[in-house]
């Protein structure tokens, strides 16, 4: 009879071990999935912020060049991994638009400024869609 009892106990241990392994695998898979989702989200946030920073750099560069040359009309810049397109329009009231594209992320800044008597005054600065 001891043999039958031993075989029954080892069967229960095997089933318990399998259940513990399955639960462990489920928890591990959930944790790995969460880490991957977090990493992708952080990467997308980083690329969006990098594109925004590049667009702002385009605006600042345009303002500097406008002070040096009132007829400046814009250019295309490479800033880090982003391509920034700057356009300037208007005479006394200048509209400066800087659009940055990095990978699939695009950010656009629009600035309105007055340029009178060699003084550049910013009247609005906004991110546009």
What does the model show?
The protein has 129 residues and is an alpha+beta fold. It has one domain: Pantoate--beta-alanine Ligase, Chain: A,domain 2. The chain has 1 helix and 5 strands, in the order H-E-E-E-E-E. The radius of gyration is 30 Å and the shape is rod-shaped.
The average pLDDT score comes to: 87
Strand order of the biggest β-sheet: 1-2-3-4-5
Write out the CATH superfamily name.
GSPII I/J protein-like
CA-based gyration radius? 30 Å
What is the topology?
Blueprint: H1 2-68, E1 74-79, E2 82-89, E3 93-102, E4 105-116, E5 119-128
Antiparallel strand pairs: 1-2, 2-3, 3-4, 4-5
TL;DR of this structure?
The protein is an alpha+beta fold and 129 residues long.
Keywords:
1 helix, alpha+beta, Pantoate--beta-alanine Ligase, Chain: A,domain 2, 5-stranded antiparallel beta sheet
């Amino acid at each position: 009879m001891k043999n039958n009892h031993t075989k029954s106990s080892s069967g229960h241990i095997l089933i318990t071990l399998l259940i513990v392994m399955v639960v462990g695998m489920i928890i591990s898979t959930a944790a790995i999935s969460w880490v991957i989702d977090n990493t992708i989200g952080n990467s997308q946030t980083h690329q969006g912020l990098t594109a925004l920073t590049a667009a702002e750099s385009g605006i600042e560069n345009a303002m500097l060049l406008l002070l040096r040359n009132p007829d400046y009309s814009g250019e295309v810049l490479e800033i880090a991994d982003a391509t920034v397109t700057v356009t300037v329009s208007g005479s006394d009231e200048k509209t400066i638009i800087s659009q940055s594209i990095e990978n699939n992320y695009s950010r656009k800044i629009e600035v309105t400024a007055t340029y009178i008597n060699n003084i550049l005054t910013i009247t609005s600065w906004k991110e546009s869609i």
